[in-house]
Structures are given as C-alpha cells and as structure tokens.
Amino acid sequence: MTNDYRFEFRPYQRRFLRSLTTNHGNWNIREGIILRLTDESGKLGWGEIAPISWFGSETLEQALDFCRQLPDKITDEIIFSIPDKLPACQFGFESAWESEFFSMPYDASSLKSAKPPTRLAPPCPMPHAQFYSGLLPAGEAALNQWETLWQQGYRTFKWKIGVYTIADELKIFESLIHTLPAFTKLRLDANGGLSYEEANLWLWTCDNLKANGELPLEIEFIEQPLPVEQFQQMLELSTSYKTAIALDESVATLGQLAACHQQGWRGIFVIKPGIVGSPSRLRKFCHQHKIDTVFSSVFETAIARQAALKLAAELYQNNRAIGFGIDHFFEQEETWFQSLWNDL
User: Fold this and answer.
1) Which of 55, 199, 263, 290 could form a cystine bridge with 225, CB 3.0-4.6 A?
2) Is pLDDT above 90 for 75?
3) pLDDT tens by residue, 16-27
4) Domain, as residue range, for 21
5) Which helix (H) or strand (E) holds 58?
6) 229 Cβ partners below 8 Å, 6+ apart?
C-alpha cells in the first residue's frame, strides 16, 4: 500500500559565529532545506537536506530544483526513487519518512503550532560512543579554543591541517600536543590538502614522536591526507606507517564508500550521514561489511542531527568519538527555528 504525504519545505541560511577555515577555503554561511511531511492523520515527519557540493554532494540549487518540481502530495515511491546524484536529498526525504515524529500526533488544523524539534537526544543509546569529538579551528586559534571545549566535556579533538604552511603547522602541532591533557585523543584533518611528501612528513612525525616516547597523547588518525583522486597513494601510506589514516572526502557518498571498500580499503571510514545518501542502504552496507566507522557532522541543524545520531547508534562497531562537536560554531537553534517557520 502506498502512503500519501503532504510535502512542504523551507530553505534556510545559518551564519557561522566564526568562519570555518579548511583546505577548501572559508565557509561563512551554512545553507540547506528543512522538509516537513504530514500523513493523512496529521502526524508529522521532519527532514533536512544539507548538501556540501565541494565535498561530493549535489549543490543547494539542484536540491531546491528537485523540491520545487515535486507535487504538494508525495508518496513512498517518490521518496525511495530519488536518484543517486542527489544523496543529500535521499537522506533528507528518507529520514523524514522514517522520522520518529510520525508517532507524535498533532492537530492537523493548527500546524503553525508544530515547530521543528531543536534540542534532541539520540533516540537510542550509544554505549560504544560515549562522547563527541570537538572541532578545533585551524592554525594557532586551536591553542586558545581547546580549553573551552574541554570544560564542556570534550576529550577527543579534531584539528584542521593543510591550511597553512606545513612548517608553521608542525610548530603549532608541537605546542598543541604538549598543551592538551595527556589522556586526550587528537585527530588531524587535512581535507585532502596535503601533497604526497607532506602526508609522509606528517605520518613520519607522528610515528617518530610515539616511538621516541615524546607523544604525550594519542593521535587517533590523520583524516583524508590526500585528494580523492590519490586513493592508491593513501592505500599505500596506510600500510607504511603505524599512525592510522581515515578516508573522508573519498567516501562522501554510498557509491564512493562501496568503491573504496571494493578496492581494498580496510581502514577507517568517516561517514557524513547528511550527504552519504539513503539511510536504509547505508545500514545494509555497514551490516554486511562491518566497516570501521566514524560518523561525522555536515554542520546540519538538529533535524538532520537527530537522524544522523540514530544511524550512528545503530551502526557503530567501535568506541570512537562521533564527530558532532560543532555546536560552538552556531547561535542557539531555538530562536533561529522560530524565525524560519513563523510564516508556515
């Protein structure tokens, strides 16, 4: 039996409190789309499309074009036939379809009172992921930011590299590892911004510090050291050093994830649910292959974060911190949501 849903959507813009600087450049405004499905009894399901085109998803305009061409009433068949070239749309519509909010009755005659959720806890426990990884800014700013996050409870941190010269970053790295408390974990995220020689130098530095007993904390992994097209070089590096490598941009979508696994990657996969594609197909792949995953944010709102955390809770196979420690980059969501939906 095919179900019908009333379909509504709203584009949004959220300004970062501080510019996010990576190898891809400066990111100042997060744009996306909030979806709302209403079934025949008036129950609601919320979803979010949060594309990052430079990371491998569709563009925001492509996502908007897709939403605009849909009718006011859509069906299960439409939701599950969204093409693979729209992975953020696949995630947004399918997560809205399976949203737990369909079990929460609302008065269909007064939908204006039905606001999207803001602060949400994961719908199921995550015994193997006890805490989040806090994102540090690139460069020297990390030396001042970590303590605030530490006081908020973070014990794993991710620091952006490949932004400034490697000589400068190695100096900052030396200061950072001796500033952070000894039992923290640190992830180094290059966003594909290193040369092959620079990647070797980072990996050698981490291995050498550890071998000499000069590394006071754990370097958990170096994330996406090389560009996507240099997969074979990353595969080679992963067997040449003890410091682990995680793929991120290389496995942005389900198609890329499957391709890298087929080509022999058995290291860490950083999965960004908001752009990876269909949640149901992701579940199937992870259950089948038991891959080593780190689930990570795409700077989504609480809508997509709820669905992403649900997936992480279901699919985690290890005790790695999840990469959702990004709240300090935005204003509180309650006020922002009210302004987005006050005209619905």
Assistant:
1) 199
2) yes
3) 988 888 878 899
4) 4-115+334-341
5) none
6) none
pLDDT for the residue 65: 98
Q: Which residue is catalytic, options 158, 160, 185, 310?
A: 160
pLDDT beyond 70 at 250: yes
- 272 included as an active-site residue: yes
Strand partners, 185: 156, 218
Whether residue 148 is found in the same domain as residue 272: yes
Q: Which is catalytic among the residues 43, 158, 272, 310?
A: 272
- Structural domain includes residue 122: no
Does the annotation count 160 as an active-site position? yes
Interior angle at CA 295, CA 294 and CA 298, nearest 5: 130
Structure tokens at 311: 């997936």
Which uninterrupted H or E stretch holds 173? helix 166-179
- Indicate whether 189 and 299 sit together in one domain: yes
One domain for residues 157 and 290: yes
User: What CA–CA distance (Å, rounded) separates 311 from 283?
Assistant: 8
pLDDT digits (tens, 9 = 90+) for 256-300: 999 999 999 999 999 999 999 999 999 999 999 999 999 999 999
- Same domain for 137 and 185, yes or no, is yes
Residues 305 and 249 in one domain: yes
Structural domains counted in the chain: 2
What pTM was estimated for this model as a whole? 0.88
Q: How far apart are CA 321 and CA 128, in angstroms?
A: 9
